[in-house]
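Sequence of Mycofactocin maturase MftC (Thermocatellispora tengchongensis).
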Amino acid sequence: MTANPLDVAWELSPGVALRPEPFGALAYHFGNRRLTFLKRGELAAVVRALAAHPDARGALAEAGVPAEQWPAYAGALRGLASADMIRPRTAPAPVAPGTPAKTAAARGASASLARRFEEGLAAPICLTWELTYACNLSCVHCLSSSGRRDSRELTTAQCEAVIDELQAMQVFYVNIGGGEPTVRPDFWHLLEYAVAHRVGVKFSTNGVRITPERARALAGMDYVDVQVSLDGATAEVNDRVRGAGSYATAIRALDNLAEAGFADAKLSVVMTRENVSQLDAFKAIADARGATLRLTRLRPSGRGADVWDELHPTAGQQRELYEWLLRAGEDVLTGDSFFHLAGYGESLPGLNLCGAGRVVCLIDPVGDVYACPFAIHDTFRAGNVLTDGGFAGVWRGSELFRELREPQTSGACTGCRFFDSCRGGCMAAKFFTGLPLDGPDPECVQGHARDALAAAGRTPPRPSQDHSRRPRSRPVPVRIGRRPSPDVPPARACAESPLAGFVPSPDA
Ligand code: SF4
Ligand code: SF4
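Predicted 3D structure, token representation.
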């Protein structure tokens, strides 16, 4: 754009929603799925006022922005236009506004954005919803110990009520997972229901139901993103962790999506000791299919607790990953899950804080709300959507969430010069390795957790629940050849079919 942004008549782009927040507002573009933070109340007020004025100057005046700050706002408007959050308006402005008045938002003090996030938002940015514990696979590191469905899982009508509430709270999108969410008979209905109610859906799948026909249907839908899980760039590495045949299933799903013209699917990888050396190969798999690579951290949650010692990247591999991520920049997504690597010196893109209960939370298949998808344990259960005033009641009223939104102390990380960026790392990783929550992350790159991890008497808590298909009296095997033979008959029907015993609700 060559014109001065202050001279342009703007409006919000179609498909962009603004959600008021204590720091200003969040803007979400349902078309390109970009999330933008309007970090000051004044800027949010200006953006809201744009459509009512013949140029941006009128909106700035209405929001009470002093004239000497207008050049800075011109830059902000240019940035919003480049992200397609706002567009030049062709139709005339509606009725001229009355006397300029500074809005409440514009009057608000602008504390630092990180501080605002720590205090919690009006609704989560990153809401994960596990629709079922049923899964056709039994990955050794499954964070929710999935396998068998739970007979108390929310019915179709209850799920619809949750979506209605998310729409009312302006939750822009929800990350749907499981288990394998697509094995729920009403999954595709719930997907369409959410989209029709302006709640975008990103769903994670092992690919089992992404047929060519389904891929074509998904390619024709707005507001849907698909994330296919793969934990090895070769079948040998992947299938050791995710089970025999799972590599082929995932690649087929990615191919089906690419051939159907589905734009920008995600290839989702949990980083382990076995696959750090395959980072370039993962990127190549994604690039070849027009997909984006998304890397996440292995946490010792769910069945991951059993294999964490064996599978979490070594110190040398953490460094390798960090340097690779710095080189990749914003081309590779990380879900903000590697901010503990900031202890090497430079922060990676993202919020760089533990968002548990502040900007992140989980609804599990039975409607329990936890502070984070990696913290499925009674300690982090904030309430239930059926009994505690709905999701909004839990998000706004939970005592646990109130505590998590209190200022945190640096505890044993006091004195570490990287605390401002690393923040002591991941709460769930500390909890499930039996380390104090106010101490260093178990993978502290400065080595400050080494002694605590080695200490005798450390007792990591066991998960509060387990939906694994095989009873787990001992750690889940990881190495080739130690998986049970497919010739051995299952101990129970549900070990063969994750849906055994599932009776769809009448409205499914
Ligand atoms: S507990 Fe860990 S995974 Fe969960 S929000 Fe905090 S840092 Fe992220
Ligand atoms: S001591 Fe704490 S703040 Fe410092 S790098 Fe380790 S985990 Fe991060």
